[in-house]
Design a protein that fits this description.
Chains C, E: GO terms for molecular function: transmembrane transporter activity. With 311 residues, chain B is α/β, with parallel strands linked by helices. Chain B contains 10 helices and 12 strands. In chain B, 42% of the residues lie in helices and 19% in strands. Chain C has a domain of 211 residues. Chain C has 12 helices and 2 strands, in the order αααααββααααααα. In chain C, strand 1 and strand 2 form a beta hairpin. The structure holds adenosine-5'-triphosphate (2 copies) and magnesium ion (2 copies).
Chain lengths: 274, 311, 322, 274, 322
């Protein structure tokens, strides 16, 4: 199955192993089982949407994939190699960038600082290498450029993130992830708080990222958006993967039916599955 | 039989005076085959901590408890309770109020210690108009008040009685500040006093560390020559300062002697059941490098050989 | 939906038990070291020794639960004890009236703290740093720095004992335990109690849900003042005197008891009974080490190490369970 | 204009003054002008949607209406009476309940506690009136019932809110507002983090509230939802009200065009306006 | 989009100026009360008096910015000064070597604090409560509670003065100011500096952005230890002695300076220069009140009132501006 990346993802590395794969992930919180043996597979150059009811374990799944939490069981493979992320640092080092649902920003710090947190641009020469001095001007300019791409009307990059509106904050988090990813981009509901215009910009951004060859994991409750951009859809249910479907070959209502449990995945016609 | 347990409760953990007292007690206990458990209040003036220590020592089976009370009055009920359970309690360094709630008292007369240096200062000033700075202990501390008021009495200025806890302040005293008996705080206090009145020519200090700190301040201001410094304590470091001319005179007291007497009484009680009693003034001696006419004093050599009661 | 019904997430139970386990461990250790330690009478003694700090720590817990801190607690307690003893000794007030005066003063200080924190929105640390100094100075001035010993019988009743089995127990310790039970009940089972947690947990959200957060804070600081007043009474009853030098180390002691008991300095999380355990841990260390004959400098050293060890064991065991 | 409440809002009080009205609201944050003379009008028994780009001032507007912030200028009228909310308590007392965009929950407290925060159910008799003792059991049962209405699968009401998934948290906030409103319900993006099923439940809930006679202010970026349930649509732009339109008479694309500034409101045909 | 370009929201500027205004007000008040107050020499004196606490407060600020607290600061400083003086006096080490030993010990304590906070995730309050006691006990034991006065020249160089205009200025005060400038620069202009703020502001988010938060915390505690070591050297240079009694009030003093300077105890918000101002406020009060001839109990009273007033004026003026 892996050999056949969807035809329209031009950058799919033919026949290669999945970029990111997980098998039998389990995560318990006390008696709550957030992940109950979940499988996962992301192929090269695709946009993989992950959908599911509230509490289906989507955020838990991507937190495991991005090293934010450690699973109780299960294994993860990156480019076919077994890996173990002990912390988000490991995932970053592997080139995986994530927009978390609760945004993970430092509220008292400025937009530019948040964008470059942990990856600050330093001054050239010894001032940068030895003193680790920040190139604040360059970071401000780069931040402004990134946010302009998303058409979000924030003009001052020295504004504290806590003074931004809900949607503006989300744009900061999205811009950060898109700017730094080298291997995989994970976005947990990146458009949830966004307006129509800003939401479309994020969708365009996601497509642009994919077209540059990076695979994207997109978690969203917005079915029209999902069906518009996803190459494949991973349906999460009760802490497991219920099915992976082809948006081109399945209707939105069938997908929702599987997602909510109204229809068992086994009743789907096999050609819908991916 | 088990070695008799003797408890010692000093005022604080850090004051060199009480540290010396503790060392004296430990040495004496070792010599006499007793087990010494030393505890202390948490800070100068901490009564609650001493009450707790007293109770715990009784629970630990101490038959004799030596205590340097932080609060002469508030400690009384706890002492009464301890004695009621058959423990001999001896006050060291300063008395309880009333005095007779303890079996015995081995102590310095702090008012008299102040008086001695007051008399010495009066003679040494030789009629010069005094401009006095006083570095006291901390607000509300009886020892601080007794030495302060005693000094003024010795100097012949209006003052308060020995039992008063307030500090008299005649006009000759141009600056009064708290040093907490501490070197650094003494230095800061003196700096500010000099800023207030640069003409200070007589300094009373609650103890020698504070005096040493004050001397540092004076030296920095280039004024250490024109001033007479008197203090109380008589520790070995203090006597060395007298020798160096930093301090003109100090009233020496004898914590080691107090401790040794206390431990000996405790061992005696354990062996024979005979309790110590009454007040033993362990004495104060004025130590000065330059004796003044009409004031009895001992020289530095004597002071050094006796410092804090060293044998 | 991957969730199973349960009453209480297990983490909570463990967080609550943590300090308690540390206390049990400490007791077991001392019992093995000194045969005098494990007796009803010794425990009664420890209770009696911690009762003043423990009652202060109730007020401190309330303040810390609202994400505040109260540095003035010890000094306000000292002022309360001076006021009540001096009212009786110098102004010949009857014991109940004098006690009421003392407690009124401590509550007044709580009110002042509360007003400054709510109306001018000053940080609690600064406010109580200021009132700590003010209370200390007033104590010294009002008492002339003299200990007040001439106090009526009625004021030391709580220092009296009754015998249970063969153990003499101080009434004050019983009052202390009763106060803990009352506050435990109030925090857990009543609406105002839950509001204290809510204010500390998310003040803005609490304000938005329509709770008068200022009134909750004001109430907490005044209640804290009340507890300091009761602690003042206990301290008078225990020492039989009004001591102007009391209260100097109680703020750190009380805050330590609260934190050792598992309450977060960031507010909104914690258990009042943990504070009692925290206060007891300190008392048990001091008592146990003295019984072992450890001298006080070493006691301080060992206490430092044990405090860290106790909390670390708790923490590590919790991580293990996870 | 007020005399003509939309025909299909059966409960609209004919000819009455608007329930909630605001004129010329101004709110500045430093040099950022969040509200720049905004007007507002909510009629009896209607669902009024408020839409606008990110940062258009929607949240600021409803925060002023719910007493969470004080405007720098402008006036508010409730049932035609001029009022001044000094704090959210005043608004609550007037029967206005709000779901804030950032949810306003106490994370360490349980679901039941959060639902009833500030309005706890007390034990009957003296235990309630004097001791203010909580009736925890009743609150748990009532909470469970409320959340069941939203079809959200949380079973334990004693779970801390911080352990819930993003969508589950939002359900708690929505359930709280709906349960206690007596006059006006304000919801700032109540469906943003919700799944398809849960989102629909909230829409149903909103309609049910309206049908009980309470007017609802709904802020949302989800245009299909807005067009499905709104009686009128308030378009916010640059801190002002750009227009109020009739969803039955205007297309979604025209609405979005006005919202994003692609089309001036003056170009709208007058029959679209409400 | 209703937003206008601007460099820095005005609130920040005011929050930063606040403590400074309070300091100016205090100075104006004392200048009006005593003609001796307003002289270059007096200010040099105040600088010199606050330099030890001010350097400790640098370390404390770093720790508090990460939402921690360090109760051990004063005792660790005292231990450092005892180690360096004793190394020189009893073991005949040369001054630089002895100083290095002292600083090594304080950094070691910082390392221990940091490891306990990061690796075992203990609350900083508990950890430093423990190490405070441990440092105190070691200080007493190692020094026999004796002041060490017999110290080499080279160790007190920082206590020497140079003359500027007609004012004698202590080298140590210059070092202190230099340290503030360096830390101010580092916190503001370098990547590690911003990470300190980020860790305090939202530790979880900072961890998720891939910053090794544990390493940042460890670095901060060790740096704090370094500053305590430098403070130890300054204290030795100032008093000319190694004093085992030092450091007992410095933790509250240093934390007060930090909070007075406008840094939040909840972490992530604050300015290092505010801390300097906070330390100066305390020094100015003490100096000014002594110059006015206010006796010590009243000094404490007035300090309490002024601390509240200073911060309240600042706060009220800020509310007015809004
Ligand atoms: N820290 C935690 N402690 C306890 N339970 C948790 C914790 N985090 C998540 N859960 C539970 O795990 C389950 C899955 O949560 P998760 O956040 O992965 O859901 P989700 O699919 O992302 O939902 P949503 O669409 O609402 O964001 C939920 O029932 C949630 O309550
Ligand atoms: N506390 C604050 N301090 C400074 N600026 C603020 C503050 N709150 C909001 N703003 C600014 O005011 C403007 C309006 O914000 P508001 O939250 O009302 O927008 P919104 O329409 O709700 O946007 P969204 O759809 O993204 O939630 C934004 O530019 C925002 O940055
Ligand atoms: Mg989620
Ligand atoms: Mg908004």
């Amino acid at each position: 199955m892996d050999a056949f990346a969807p035809a329209h993802t031009v950058h799919a590395a033919a026949g290669a192993a999945p970029v990111l794969q997980a098998k039998g992930l389990v995560k318990r919180y006390g008696q709550v089982i957030a992940l109950d043996g979940a499988d996962f597979e992301l192929r090269a150059g695709e946009i993989l949407a992950v959908i599911g009811d509230n509490g289906a374990g989507k955020s838990s799944l991507i937190k495991v994939l991005s090293g934010a939490i450690m699973p109780d069981a299960g294994e993860i493979l990156l480019d076919g190699q077994r890996i173990q992320f002990k912390s988000p640092i490991d995932a970053r080092k592997a080139g995986i960038e994530t927009v978390y649902q609760d945004l993970a920003v430092a509220p008292a710090m400025t937009i530019a600082e948040n964008l470059f947190l942990g990856r600050e641009l330093l001054r050239p020469g010894i001032r940068g290498s030895l003193l680790r001095m920040l190139d604040k001007k360059k970071m401000r300019a780069a931040s402004a450029a990134r946010l302009a791409e998303l058409k979000v009307g924030i003009h001052s990059m020295t504004q504290a993130v806590e003074t931004l509106s809900g949607g503006q904050r989300q744009c900061v988090a999205v811009a950060r992830a898109a700017a730094f990813a080298r291997h995989v981009v994970i976005m947990d509901e990146p458009t949830a708080a966004l307006g129509v215009k800003e939401g479309r910009m994020v969708l365009e951004l996601i497509c642009r990222v994919r077209d540059q060859g990076l695979p994207v994991i997109l978690i969203s409750h917005n079915m029209p958006y999902v069906f518009e951009v996803a190459d494949r859809i991973h349906i999460a249910r009760l802490g497991r993967r219920a099915a992976v479907v082809q948006p081109k070959k399945i209707s939105m209502s069938d997908t929702v039916a599987v997602m909510t449990g109204a229809m068992p995945a086994s009743e789907l016609p096999p050609e819908c599955l991916a | 039989a088990d070695a008799p347990v003797i408890g010692l409760i000093t005022k604080t953990e850090t004051n060199p005076f009480f540290v010396t007292m503790k060392e004296g007690a430990v040495a004496e206990a070792k010599k006499l085959g007793a087990k010494l458990v030393a505890t202390a209040g948490k800070a100068d003036g901490d009564n609650a901590g001493q009450v707790t220590a007293l109770e715990n020592l009784v629970a630990a089976g101490a038959k004799t408890i030596l205590i340097a009370p932080n609060n002469a009055q508030a400690i009384v009920p706890a002492i009464k309770k301890a004695r009621a359970s058959g423990v001999m309690v001896i006050a060291l360094d300063s008395p309880t109020d009333p005095v007779d709630v303890v079996d015995a008292l081995f102590a310095t007369d702090n008012y008299k210690a102040g008086e001695l240096i007051g008399q010495y200062a009066k003679a040494a000033m030789a009629g010069k108009k005094p401009v006095i700075a006083m570095l006291d202990l901390l607000p509300g501390h009886p020892v601080g008040a007794q030495r302060h008021n005693g000094f003024l009495k010795g100097f012949g200025l209006p003052t308060l009685e020995a039992h008063s806890n307030e500090l008299a302040r005649p006009p000759e005293v141009v600056c009064m500040a708290d040093s907490f008996g501490d070197r650094t705080k003494g230095q800061t206090a003196m700096e500010n006093c000099l800023q207030k009145n640069p003409d200070i020519n007589l300094l009373y200090s609650i103890n020698e560390p504070a005096a040493a700190g004050a001397h540092k301040a004076l030296k920095a201001a280039g004024k250490e020559k024109n001033i007479l410094i008197v203090a109380v304590d008589g520790g070995c470091a203090g006597i060395a300062d007298v020798d160096r001319g930093v301090i003109a005179a100090t009233s020496q007291q004898y914590p080691l002697r107090m401790a040794a007497m206390g431990v000996a009484a405790g061992v005696e009680y354990a062996k024979t059941g005979k309790k110590a009693s009454g007040y033993t003034d362990t004495g104060v001696t004025l130590i000065a490098a330059k004796p003044q006419a009409g004031v009895d004093s001992q020289d530095v050599k004597t002071g050094a050989s006796l410092c804090w009661g060293k044998k | 939906m991957p969730s199973i019904t349960f009453r209480r997430p297990p983490q909570v139970t463990l967080a609550t038990l943590g300090p308690f386990i540390a206390l049990i461990l400490a007791c077991a250790f001392f019992a093995s070291q000194s045969e005098r330690f494990l007796s009803a009478q010794n425990f009664s003694l420890i209770l009696q020794q911690v009762m003043v700090v423990a009652v202060i720590a109730i007020g401190q817990t309330l303040v810390i639960l609202t994400a505040g801190i109260d540095l003035s607690c010890g000094m306000v307690m000292a002022l309360g004890s001076i006021v009540m003893t001096k009212m009786a000794a110098s102004h010949d007030l009857s014991a109940p009236l004098a006690i009421a005066c003392g407690i009124a003063v401590t509550v007044l200080f709580g009110l002042v703290n509360g007003l400054l924190v709510t109306k001018i929105a000053l940080p609690p640390f600064i406010v109580t740093l200021g009132t700590m100094n003010i209370a200390f100075a007033i104590t010294q001035l009002y008492s002339d720095a003299q200990t007040i010993t001439d106090i009526p019988e009625g004021m030391t009743l709580l220092g009296g004992t009754f015998v249970l089995g063969q153990t003499a127990i101080v009434w004050g310790a019983v009052l202390m335990l009763a106060l803990y039970l009352i506050v435990w009940f109030a925090l857990r089972e009543t609406a105002p109690g839950r509001h204290v947690y809510a204010v500390g947990n998310n003040p803005e959200a609490t304000r938005l849900t329509g709770i008068a957060t200022d009134r909750v804070l004001l109430g907490v600081y005044m209640l804290a003042g009340l507890f300091y007043g009761i602690a003042a009474l206990l301290s008078v009853a225990r020492t039989g005197a009004g001591d102007p030098n009391a209260g100097q180390t109680e703020n750190l002691d009380a805050i330590s008891a609260v934190v050792l008991g598992g309450t977060s300095l960031f507010g909104g999380r914690g258990m009042i009974l943990g504070t009692l355990v925290g206060a007891l841990i300190v008392g048990v260390f001091r008592n146990g080490l003295t019984l072992m004959g450890v001298s006080s400098v070493y006691q301080i050293l060992v206490t430092g190490i044990l405090v860290i060890l106790a909390v670390a064991t708790d923490q590590l065991s919790r991580q293990g369970v996870r």
